[in-house]
Write a structure and sequence with these properties.
This protein is mainly α. It has one domain. The chain contains four helices and two strands. It starts with a helix and ends with a helix.
Length: 100
């Protein structure tokens, strides 16, 4: 049994799903983060959405896993791409609901 592939990566997928749900269901997910310390932590100079900060933490965590476990890099890259796509779709749906 490949513990990393079968268990660890599965747990990370669950964690990412939870983060996506958190980012899309936050009442203030469309609020801009302007706290200078938070922006510095994310390497940003301009304000970003609260939900984007949650997703960026996910992406950063997966990037660390890629560096730590290079044999599973492909899995983490796929998860990163899926996370960004799901976040994009979620934002499109929310923006259409707000505009309607």
């Amino acid at each position: 049994m490949d513990y990393i592939k079968d268990v660890f990566i599965g747990q990370i997928k669950t964690d990412n799903s939870d983060a996506l749900n958190e980012a899309s269901q936050l009442l203030d997910s469309w609020r801009a983060v302007t706290d200078i310390d938070v922006l510095r932590e994310h390497g940003m100079k301009k304000p970003l959405l609260q939900s984007a900060a949650v997703i960026k933490k996910c992406i950063d965590r997966m990037h660390q896993y890629m560096q730590t476990l290079p044999l599973y890099c492909e899995h983490f890259l796929t998860m990163m791409c899926n996370t960004v796509i799901q976040y994009k779709v979620s934002n499109l749906i929310q923006s259409k609901a707000i505009a309607a």
